[in-house]
Specification:
It contains three helices and seven strands. By secondary structure, the chain is α+β, with helices and mostly antiparallel strands. A five-stranded mixed beta barrel has the order 2-4-5-7-6. A hairpin with a 5-residue loop joins strand 3 and strand 4. The chain starts with a helix and ends in a 20-residue tail after the last helix.
């Protein structure tokens, strides 16, 4: 083989190898920042055919409804603890910060953070749904069968006892 061709081939193979290594490093870095969406049932029972449960230390998002009488606030700090559910098990969310104005018990939320125990998540962000009729598609799919009552409709609470 011609020495000039050999040199070109070496440079070309080196360039391809360099691009492959850089691409691999980028994919690895991005995989560490993926936030997967789970419902409380999927956190406890597992997700998909293989029933994969999130691991302690894994970043994820959990969507569900805040359980009535579950919100506990520390009067000294901004620490808040509450539980969310979909149709089954509950997951405890720990959050430090100011909650959104629309946050309340019985409200749908999405919390983003890190699992610190199998059923406990340390949230870095809590989002409350802004429209009474909106629900993330993944959560709506998991919560089929739960009747959502729109509190803005005048007949929403007819027939219920105070």
């Amino acid at each position: 083989m011609n020495p000039r061709r050999k040199k070109r081939l070496t440079w070309t193979l080196g360039l391809i190898a360099g691009v492959a290594v850089a691409f691999s490093i980028i994919l690895y870095a991005l995989s560490q920042n993926i936030d997967l969406f789970y419902t409380p049932t999927e956190v406890v029972e597992g997700k998909g055919k293989n029933a994969l449960k999130p691991e302690v230390g894994q970043r994820l998002r959990i969507g569900g409804m805040v359980i009535e009488d579950s919100v506990k606030r520390d009067p000294e700090t901004l620490e808040v603890e509450f539980r969310v559910t979909d149709i089954g098990p509950e997951v405890k969310i720990l959050y430090t910060g100011i909650l959104p104005d629309l946050f309340r018990e019985g409200q749908g939320i999405v919390a983003q953070g890190v699992m610190v125990e199998p059923r406990v998540m340390k949230a870095t962000e809590v989002l409350a749904k802004h429209d009474e009729e909106y629900m993330p598609p993944e959560l709506a799919e998991q919560m089929k069968g739960i009747k959502h009552v729109n509190p803005n409709q005048p007949d929403a609470f007819e027939g219920s006892t105070p």
